[in-house]
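Task 17 of the worksheet. Students: predict the tertiary structure of the chain below and write it out as structure tokens. Keep your answer in the requested format; marks are given for formatting as well as content.
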Amino acid sequence: MEAASDIPPGTLYLLVLKTLARLGAMHGYGIAQYIQQTSGDVLQVEEGSLYPALQRMLIKGWVIAEWRQSENNRRARYYTLTPKGRKQMARELHKFQRGTAAITRVVEA
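Model answer:
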């Protein structure tokens, strides 16, 4: 079995925003686990990438955060998508689809 891969450059925001849109409020560890499990253990989100990205998303107003008790009774920061984040998710998805279509054209040429 192959080892998990890092998230491709330029897709972390999209994956996090899409995860929050599907599942609602989540803490960082839950977001990382969901992405890894849903990708069939192909994609792995590293803490060193995820938490700085979540902080940038907070600053940009794409998500809001609040402290709550997690499932295992620990204090965790839960992130929720904002309307501004939904709009950004659509932009990120369009950018991703455009990029993958271009790559496909080159590979299949």
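Marker's comment: Residues 83-108 form the longest helix (26 residues). The mean pLDDT is 93.
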